[in-house]
Amino acid sequence: MVTFLTTCICLLVITIILCYFYLTRNFNYWKNQNVQCVKPIPLFGSLFSVIAQRKSINGYLNFLYKSTTLPYIGFFVIDQPSMLIRDPALIRRILVGDFDSFQNRNVLNNKYDKYGKNLLSLLKQPKWKEVRSNLTSAFSSRKLRHMVPLLVEVCDDMIHYIKTDCLNLESIDCKNISVNYEIDAISTCAFGIRTNSHENSEFATAAKNVLGTNLLRAFQMGAHFFAPLLVKIFRMKFCDPHSCLFLEKVLLKSMKERERLKIVRHDFLDLMKVIRAKNPQLFSRIVVYHEMVIGTFIQYLLGGLESSGSAMTYTIYELCMNPTIQTRLRNEILTVLAKHEIVTQETIQEMVYLDMVIKESLRKYPPLPFIDRACNTTYTIPNTDIVIKKGMPVFISLTALHHDENYFPNPMLFDPERFSSENKSSITPYTYMPFGDGYRNCLGIQFAILSVSLGLINLLSNFEVIPCKDTPSVISYERSSFLLTPLHNKIYVKFRSLND
Ligand code: HEM
């Protein structure tokens, strides 16, 4: 009995020692190359504060950025050496000049994940390039022109909802209104599905739950970035499968209906038919085609609803806290609208101050607060001996760059003048990138700006936004989210009719 117990203890000690050596095998990687780095802890790497939920991943990258003035700093994602790039010139190389060495994101693309495997943002080369070039034309200026009247209808739903349900409320969560508006905007413009998410629809709930709202979902998503082994072992999914299944059924029903009635809308679904006809070998099986369409539908919702919804929310919040800016913007909107019978893309382009306000809002609050790339070759940082090995992730903190006093003096001040025609040329390249940059930047930039602009035009020409008792004086953020999500995912304001 004693021998058995001794053997067990010995085996346990040996296992612990082996695990220790395995988990710490890379811990000298940066030290050996004389790169400043954060001291790692076995099992957590440098991410103890993130795993313990003391900091969000965005908060951690921000902290790393501020902890040095050097062009880069090393850290460890569990056992994997990783790097935060601070220097704009090196950022430019990674995103553009040396893109061939940084074509993929660090996030895992899991072949067992029916919905996740077709998300463009998760795809790896060479499939990524093929899909991206096919999808790019969905957002051409001609397509966007067709979308304006559809977006106007969706704005009408939002304004109607606020007028009938919100005006006598003391506080209204403008995040919920903005996200509902964006769900309707993406669904109608890209897929011809007319939803009214403000009316508490099942569709809106499923769309919001794709990313998930609870801690387990946050963990599963985070694991795709930081613990791919766990994803493989436990066959985790990037998106919530129940919500995806619901959305799949709605989409397939809408596709069948369009086939039956021979409806042509020149939207994303029609574009997918053209792509299929041009690439029969790619979509030889209907299941593959459907998976691709559904994957893209979910990608647009994922890419669009939280980020565009947040962009609109934070802009509303800043306008609420800065009444002078709000009045100036409303005056511009009303003056331009008075000159035109209908709103078109040209009408929106005349609203120069609106563009400045949105840009400043995306600076102060980049909805996707960091971007990442995985090195796909062995890369030596130019003019140094520092090697980034194949497979190593590099990160760029958008929040940290956007809030860097050296690039944006008095960074916490909401000042749209930074983007006036006189001032914008003095912004250092690669320090302002709310949509990322380079070949793998955001696919939906123009659509995002169009939908946020139209949403704000309609809100401000109907209502005044004022603070209420629940409006925070400074915004705090959720620590479990990798997006820039406000605390409890809510921001309260009050809407007052302009006719009062
Ligand atoms: C204000 C709103 C938005 C913001 C701030 C935003 C921001 C971003 C950022 C920072 C990235 C990563 C870029 C990089 O790694 O360099 C990204 C990627 C992406 N975004 Fe957006 N986005 C917005 C709206 C949208 C919309 C409306 C759509 C689609 C309808 C969309 C679709 C995508 C896709 C598909 C990708 C992945 C592109 C690829 O990997 O090739 N985004 N977005």
From TrEMBL:
Q: Does the keyword Endoplasmic reticulum apply?
A: yes
Q: May I have one GO cellular component term?
A: endoplasmic reticulum membrane
Pfam families the record matches: p450 (PF00067)
Subcellular location(s) per record: Endoplasmic reticulum membrane; Microsome membrane
Instruction: Name the major location.
Output: endoplasmic reticulum
A GO molecular-function term, please? monooxygenase activity
**What does the entry list as the binding residues for heme?**
442
- List the cofactors: heme
Could you list this entry's UniProt keywords, alphabetically sorted. Endoplasmic reticulum, Heme, Iron, Membrane, Metal-binding, Microsome, Monooxygenase, Oxidoreductase
Q: Does the keyword Phosphoprotein apply?
A: no
- Membrane-topology descriptor: Peripheral membrane protein
Show the InterPro entries listed in the entry: Cyt_P450 (IPR001128), Cyt_P450_CS (IPR017972), Cyt_P450_E_grp-I (IPR002401), Cyt_P450_sf (IPR036396), Insect_CytP450_Detox (IPR050476)
UniProt record similarity statement: Belongs to the cytochrome P450 family.
Name of the protein in its database record: Cytochrome P450
Q: What is the lineage of its organism?
A: Eukaryota, Metazoa, Ecdysozoa, Arthropoda, Hexapoda
